[in-house]
Design brief:
This protein has a single domain, classed as TIM Barrel (Alpha-Beta Barrel). Helix content is 41%, strand content 16%. It is built from 10 helices and 11 strands. The strands form 2 sheets. The chain has a 9-stranded parallel β-sheet with strand order 3-2-1-11-10-9-8-5-4. Strands 6-7 form a two-stranded antiparallel ribbon.
């Protein structure tokens, strides 16, 4: 099983001036101890359950560029991008830029989004769910076109929510055959269908082995209908870890059970991550056993 780190809070000692040095230290430590991937949320306000809306929150694409400069090995991505925050062409160009500047380490994490409060609060608007899914499919189709060939397909794309006349992408991504695409969310009718059709990975919550097993069975059904090999899709889960409430050996057991249910890549939100000794302990006591 591969293991990633999701950084979902920036309320750290020292205030705003300490966020940069702390994030750099977290990224370097996670990279050094062996995490396979590092992720940040694509939010502008802090989300419910993690803090008040006015708690510190970094813009995701910019934060990933910063992490790219402070890491060398782990892949980096958004967990996951809200499709209506950026136009499809900007999504692909920004992610390609991240891939090129990081030496081929980008993930393209994308989803239909849900946070109406931050969207309306900052003037993005919040299209109806049907339109957001149409935007998501247009973006996924554009990603395939722009990440194909030497510098993109060069073709036009007539989507439901946009028209693109020339799918050129230069410089092209370093990742081959493309930047891996991850579709986030466990919606059984549309989200998992889009993952089966367009993505290289899916992401669902790792609530329990039974929950994971059920969602992945739905993904397999979509793959069967689309004649897509199920094993081409990396199955990732998002879960949290509080070292004060669960020992490293207990985490190994829990992730092992999720792995037996079909998960291949566990992405951890580690409580108190600014204390990087916690990441070092995970690197020493958890990662070797999972592998």
């Amino acid at each position: 099983m591969r293991v990633g780190l999701q950084i979902n809070q920036f309320t750290w000692p020292g205030g705003a001036s300490a966020i940069g040095p702390t994030l750099a230290r977290i990224g370097r430590t996670a990279d050094d101890v062996g995490f396979d991937s590092i992720w940040v949320m694509d939010h502008f306000f802090q989300i419910r359950g993690l803090g008040p809306p006015e708690a510190p929150m970094l813009e995701g694409q910019t934060a990933l560029g910063f992490l790219a400069a402070h890491t060398e090995r782990a892949r980096i991505g958004l967990m996951v991008g809200g499709v209506h925050y950026r136009r499809p062409g900007l999504w692909i160009k920004a992610t390609t830029t991240l891939d090129v500047l990081s030496g081929g380490r980008a993930w393209f994490g994308i989803g239909a989004a849900w946070n109406v409060h931050e969207s309306k609060g900052l003037g993005f608007g919040f299209p109806e769910l049907k339109e957001r899914f149409a935007m998501l499919e247009d973006t996924l189709r554009m990603a395939h076109g722009m990440w194909s060939g030497g510098s993109g397909s060069g073709e036009a794309l007539e989507g439901t929510t946009m028209t693109a006349t020339h799918l050129i992408n230069s410089p092209q991504s370093l990742s081959r055959p493309r930047v891996p695409i991850l579709v986030g969310g466990g919606g059984e009718r549309r989200t998992l269908r889009l993952a089966a059709q367009y993505a290289d990975a899916c992401n669902i919550f790792g609530r329990s082995p039974e929950f994971v097993r059920h969602k992945l069975s739905i993904l397999r059904e979509h793959c069967d209908r689309l004649d897509r090999p199920y094993d081409e899709i990396e199955r990732t889960i998002l879960t949290s870890y509080d070292m004060g409430a669960e020992s490293p050996s207990e985490l190994v057991d829990r992730l092992g059970a999720l792995g037996e249910a079909g998960a291949q890549h566990a992405i951890l939100s580690v409580r108190g991550v600014a204390d990087t000794s916690r990441l070092e302990r995970i690197g020493a006591e958890v990662l070797p056993q999972l592998r």
